[in-house]
Amino acid sequence: MGKFVQLVVDGLSTGSVYAALALAIVLVHQATGLINFAQGGMAVLSAYAVWWLTNRGLPLVAAILVAIVLSVVFGALVERWLMRRFERGDPDTAVVVTIGLLTLITGFAGWLWTYNNQQFPSLFPLDTVSFLGVSVSVRSLGTTAVIVVAMLLLQGLFVGTKLGLALRAVAINPQSAAFCGLPVGRLLMVGWGLAAALGAVAAVLVAPQLTLTPGMLDNALVYALAAVILGGLTSPIGVVIAAWIIGILENLAAVYVPFIGFDLKVAVPFILIFVVLIVRPQGLFGRKTVVRV
């Protein structure tokens, strides 16, 4: 029983890493209607900014705040000078552009800082706490707490604020939103900027656990996309719960399902995706979209 509980706790910790990136993907989609595959690369760039600033003597918290501000500016500029040229065209084209942007950012980071692993300072202590035979690191607890707060803030933004409602209106129908007097261009920039800031927070939480490299979030991005599909693109709470489910199930399957083991546990989220898409295509917590034809 103790082993089972330990696997569940470890799965929650791993799922929190996936959830951090999944929330940023949901934020971009809720604000623009697009899936941003470059989210991981933008987050890694923010992590490198924090690493560079701390190596030059800036305190970690101050470096994180500076990186968040820079991320907001970078996200807004990406939307204004790159994505806006494709947003009114075929959505598939815009998605391909984000994949190209991911490749560009990863290559730029590798060229500038090399592909060597870099030690990233942890925002939380490295101590562990034990309860009923289960050991949990303080860093994992802190990461989970930050993700829960971000999830609640994001849910509150889109449900209970005028800015969130305006962002959703622009994402659903930018033409109608413009006719209603909403500043569509500025709102799109705000959406991308907020998502980039959330991605920066995710990278800062993840980097100490994975070590900092240009491709640090490549695997996490796959799991994050799985969490987005399972939880639903319209539900920040849903994607966090889905990320936790993925983290827990892949840990349990690796130990208790012999033919899966640790080598094939990466298949667990994809199996879940197939099942959910067949039974509930909008995701476990997503809303059905009604389209008038």
Short descriptors:
mainly alpha; 11 helices; globular
Structural account:
This protein has helices spanning 2-32, 39-55, 60-81, 91-113, 138-160, 162-172, 174-179, 184-210, 218-231, 236-256, 267-279, and strands at residues 128-131, 134-137. By secondary structure, it is mostly helical. It has a domain at 13-216. The chain has a two-stranded antiparallel sheet. The protein starts with a helix and ends in a 14-residue tail after the last helix.
Please count the helical segments: 11
The whole-angstrom Rg is 19 Å
Helix content: over 70%
Structural classification: mainly alpha
Summarize the helix and strand pattern as letters: HHHHEEHHHHHHH
For the report, how would you describe the main beta sheet? 2 strands, antiparallel
Terminus-to-terminus distance:
54 Å
The coarse silhouette is: globular
Strand order across the largest sheet: 1-2
How many DSSP E strands? 2
Topology readout:
Elements: H1 2-32, H2 39-55, H3 60-81, H4 91-113, E1 128-131, E2 134-137, H5 138-160, H6 162-172, H7 174-179, H8 184-210, H9 218-231, H10 236-256, H11 267-279
Antiparallel strand pairs: 1-2
Helix pairs in contact: 1-5, 1-6, 1-8, 1-9, 1-10, 2-3, 2-4, 2-8, 3-8, 5-6, 6-8, 9-10, 9-11, 10-11
Outline of the structure:
With 293 residues, the chain is mostly helical. It has helices spanning 2-32, 39-55, 60-81, 91-113, 138-160, 162-172, 174-179, 184-210, 218-231, 236-256, 267-279, and strands at 128-131, 134-137.
